[in-house]
Design brief:
Distance between the termini of chain B: 51 Å
Structural class of chain B: alpha/beta
Strand content of chain A: under 5%
Low-confidence stretches of chain A: 1-16
Strand content of chain B: 15-25%
Radius of gyration of chain B: 19 Å
Number of helices of chain B: 9
Number of strands of chain B: 10
Structural class of chain A: mainly alpha
Oligomer: heterodimer
Largest sheet of chain A: none
Distance between the termini of chain A: 26 Å
Radius of gyration of chain A: 23 Å
Order of helices and strands of chain A: HHHHHHHHHHHHH
Low-confidence stretches of chain B: 1-26, 278-289
Order of helices and strands of chain B: HEEEHEEHEHHHEHEHEEH
Largest interface: A-B, 22 and 28 residues
Largest sheet of chain B: 6 strands, mixed
Shape of chain B: globular
Mean pLDDT of chain A: 86
């Protein structure tokens, strides 16, 4: 009974994103079970700390080095954020252009789909040669990683409008600009947000992996890499924990924007009732 | 139901189909179709061939025929959404293209084609926004339309929260919101159940009587065509041609009892025979293929 009371203050906030606290209880139980199982397994089977440190050891290291880790996290997050912003806005602009000039889109689309399948992260060492060892190269990798999925999805959203919708707009003597503004762009939003969520994850990956090839010492990639090299595995895991927290927060922030931008969407049905 | 002032806008029922009515005054015709043929580039399919048809203002004309007879194509040619290969279409004396630019058309499709991101109010006001009406005028008009299609209380709902029949009423309200001269309807009730369809048929007639607009209505239901129309144009398939025209001389206004009248069945039989007469040959040819 006491848990229900304790959960009350969080209720209104949780309801805001369409879930009640009750829905989260199973997930929380699973998390606790994993952490307890992890800790118990290490003690029971005497697992070496370089293979897997104890959750308690990671937590205490996280607390001890919180200032360094958060500084590194913020540094990396900024790279990811700038890469995300640049890559996504370029992709949205390109998608609008290609949807407006369809022959151009038809000609280039196969290459974009192919480029979307290229492991762009492989270019990371070359990006350092092009954009320097500092933030620039990481922003570039994160940006390029974000670009293709957003472009391909946005373009799909803009062009998969039902022909009858377009006929309807034509019957009202609406021009191309009006059709874009009132039909194509709103219709593409679900596609856009799906790809932005993917891009938020890719941006963090791009920034961190980019840092593995060299960069500022106050970055997560370098922290993880050097800690692991020095057999300082608790620190490496603590840095990974920071990366996880930042990555998930980034993802949730975009989900929240999506929720408010698309209150009209049928998927918001649950939140309204 | 007792809408008055309708009698004056009623079409001249005695006027013969096509050429006979044309003599009364060519400029007054709501729609004039002359020698329209549409061939689709893909495969060279002839969708419609040598169509001549004239609609008087206030008429409710149904186009009926089996699937693939080009009735939807003909509707789109009238609405300037499809360009005819040969022939001309005049709407109120203007070219179809000019009529579209002047926003003379209200279109309703088989699906309601409502936009999920707009509320019911906003969906209905879409054509008014495009026509540049100011907000107060839009709001007044939308309120009027919502009353007309009896959707009060659903103004701020989203389309997906409404049933299929209600969605179609929104589509009709939207099509009528800017008072178009010509209402083009492409099997609007085809996806609805029989009971909803019959109720919406009655509602459509009420709205038509109140608005006095000319309606071109595509359907493949014989009874729906008889019930709604002042005139039914029967089309035969491949290539789509006019197989015949039947004046529907049932009294106005039509009510639920109209469906029980002997004359209703006579007209339905007449249509059925027209449809069968022309359809026998092509269907057999198709079966051999």
């Amino acid at each position: 009974m006491s848990t229900v009371v304790a959960a009350e203050p969080g209720r209104s906030l949780a309801r805001g994103v369409g879930h009640s606290v009750r829905d989260w209880i199973p997930a929380v139980i699973v998390l606790v079970a994993i952490l307890v199982g992890w800790q118990a397994a290490i003690e029971a089977f005497d697992i070496q700390r370089f293979l897997l440190p104890k959750p308690t050891a990671i937590a205490s290291r996280f607390w001890e080095e919180r200032e360094t880790l958060w500084a590194a996290g913020w540094f990396t997050f900024q790279e990811a954020l700038w890469g995300f912003a640049a890559g996504c806005s370029a992709a949205i602009a390109a998608a609008l252009l290609l949807a407006r000039f369809r022959p151009l889109g038809t000609a280039l689309m196969p290459y974009f789909i192919a480029a979307n399948a290229v492991p762009i992260i492989a270019f990371a060492p070359i990006a350092i040669a092009w954009f320097g060892i500092d933030k620039g190269s990481k922003i570039a990798i994160a940006g390029v990683l974000c670009f293709f999925p957003v472009l391909v999805n946005m373009l799909k959203g803009l062009t998969s409008v039902k022909p009858s919708s377009i006929e309807l707009m034509h019957s009202y003597a609406a021009g191309n600009l009006e059709i874009f503004r009132r039909v194509r762009i709103p219709a593409s939003l679900p596609y856009l947000f799906a790809s932005l969520k993917v891009a938020s994850v890719l941006a963090m990956i791009g920034a961190i992996v980019g840092e593995y090839f060299g960069g500022s010492f106050t970055s997560l990639g370098i922290q993880i890499k050097s800690a692991a090299a020095l057999f300082n595995f608790e620190t490496a895991w603590a840095a990974i924990l920071v990366a996880c927290i930042l990555g998930i927060s980034f993802y949730l922030a975009i989900s929240l924007v999506e929720h408010f931008a698309m209150r009209w969407h049928p998927s918001a049905r649950g939140a309204q009732s | 139901m007792s809408n008055t002032g309708v009698g004056s806008t009623e079409p001249p029922r005695s006027a013969g189909a096509g050429s006979a009515g044309a003599g009364a005054g060519k400029s007054a015709a709501a729609v004039t179709i002359e020698g329209v043929t549409k061939t689709f580039a893909k495969g060279g399919t002839i969708a419609v061939q040598d169509i001549d048809l004239e609609l008087q203002p206030g008429e409710f004309v149904s186009l009926i025929g089996p699937s693939g007879c080009g009735k939807s194509t003909l509707l789109r040619v009238i609405g300037d959404l499809v360009q005819p290969t040969t022939g001309t279409v005049k709407v109120g004396g203007k070219s179809a293209h000019q009529a579209r630019l002047d926003r003379d058309y209200g279109m309703v499709f088989q699906e309601a084609v409502l936009f999920d991101w707009r509320t019911i109010t906003k969906n209905i006001s879409l054509p008014l926004e495009l026509a540049g009406w100011d907000r107060t005028r839009r709001n007044d008009r939308v309120k009027e339309m919502i009353d007309l299609v009896e959707l009060s209380g659903f103004e701020s709902h989203h389309p997906w929260e409404l049933s299929g029949g209600m969605q179609m009423r929104v589509a009709i309200a939207r099509a009528l919101s800017f008072d178009p001269k010509l209402l083009l309807m492409d099997e609007p009730f085809g996806a609805l159940d029989e009971m909803t369809r019959e109720r919406l048929n009655l509602e459509l007639l009420r709205i038509w009587e109140a608005s006095g607009s000319t309606v071109v209505f595509v359907t493949h239901s014989i009874t729906e065509a008889v019930f709604l129309s002042t005139r039914v144009v029967v089309m035969s398939p491949r290539p789509g041609r006019i197989a015949g025209t039947v004046e529907i001389d049932l009294p106005q206004p039509r009510t639920a009892d109209t469906r029980e009248e002997p004359r209703f069945f006579e007209l339905a039989t007449e249509l059925r025979e027209l449809l069968r007469g022309r359809a026998v040959e092509p269907i057999q040819a198709e079966e051999v293929q």
